[in-house]
Amino acid sequence: MEVPAKVIAGCTDFYPSLENGHVPDRIVDVSKVDEMVGITKSTPGWRIGGSTTWTEIIDHPFPPAFDGLKAAAREVGSIQIQNSGTIAGNICNASPAADGIPPLLTLEAMVEVQSANSTRLVNVEDFVLGPRKVDLGANELVTAIWVPETRNNTTSSFLKLGSRKYLVISIAMVAVTLSISPQGLIEFLNIAVGSCSPVARRMPVLEKKLTGLRARDILDDIPVEVEDLTGLTPITDIRGTSEYRQSAVRELCQSTIRDAIGKSLEIT
Ligand SMILES: Cc1cc2nc3c(=O)[nH]c(=O)nc-3n(C[C@H](O)[C@H](O)[C@H](O)COP(=O)(O)OP(=O)(O)OC[C@H]3O[C@@H](n4cnc5c(N)ncnc54)[C@H](O)[C@@H]3O)c2cc1C
Predict the structure, then answer these.
(1) Where are the domains of the chain?
(2) What kind of architecture, by CATH, is found in domain 155-267?
(3) What is the pLDDT, as a whole number, of residue 166?
(4) pLDDT tens digits for range 148-200
(5) How far away, in angstroms, is 94 Cα from ligand 1 center?
(6) Mutational pocket test of ligand 1: of 81, 124, 129, 163, the residue with most ligand atoms within 8 Å of the beta carbon
(7) Residue 141 CA: which ligand 1 atom is closest?
């Protein structure tokens, strides 16, 4: 049976993952496919071509709802990696520490998957199935990421905890997308945590607990308990212990929510 061709884009995950440096015989470079590059806005929302690089995302004049995604883009490796690495490559590589996934979860993004004769849209949380495992057939490509239209007053934040400031794989990371009503209440709140479970996850218990609260009242002490962070299974590895991750992620949630509230209060 013919081995399917390997799809490549920026190759920043592809080359480091090669066994013994052996390049597969058949590869398809999608980094310059017109329909897969660039960012457009239409009625259902934003379409980010799968081969769009992190640098292009950083440079695009998105509304404040995308600040978290931009912050994550600035954290992907180094400038050189951001110039080559793509959004689809990050999702398809499906690392538990992929910086792009938590902000996309909070933006309720969808993955556009195409084969020669069909197109389907899958929520990011259903697309990423486990470490290095995504819902993608051998005859399919990720052609774009769709982000639904956000409310005008939506802001977002992303914070990554690493053992140093630059070029680092995260110990934990948190993304928050929120909006505050004219009355000062948190009316919309999505929170996602990465690097603390096999796949980055939304935090529905915490989202529900904080939605409806007066934003200014909780700024000094955001009420986040470990029990609110359901579904996390932090492991001990070279970057940190399970216990450290567990306690750090609680504080990281507080800081990220505080940051997003601060930005939102500035524009409401
Ligand atoms: C030094 C270094 C530092 C890094 N630091 C970080 C970091 O801090 N945070 C982080 O999240 N990542 C980091 N990475 C990983 C990597 O840069 C990102 O995940 C990047 O976004 C991958 O994109 P790419 O285009 O290079 O993917 P590629 O390497 O080209 O491909 C990665 C995988 O995705 C598949 N793929 C690519 N495009 C498509 C498509 N359109 N459809 C279907 N499958 C596709 C490929 O087959 C492959 O399996 C780092 C990498 C390096 C080398």
Answers:
(1) 6-148, 155-267
(2) 2-Layer Sandwich (3.30)
(3) 86
(4) 999 889 999 999 999 888 888 999 999 999 999 999 999 999 999 999 999 99
(5) 9
(6) 81
(7) 42
**Distances, alpha carbon 256 to alpha carbons 160, 188, 214, 261, in Å:** 9, 15, 17, 9
For the Cβ of 10 lying below 6 angstroms from any atom of ligand 1, the answer is: yes
Summarised one tens digit per residue, pLDDT across range 96-147 is 999 999 999 999 999 999 999 999 999 999 999 999 999 999 999 999 999 9
Please identify which residue in the block is written with the tokens 């986040």.
224
Q: Flag whether the ipTM exceeds 0.95.
A: yes
Considering the domain delimited by 6-148, tell me its CATH architecture: 2-Layer Sandwich (3.30)
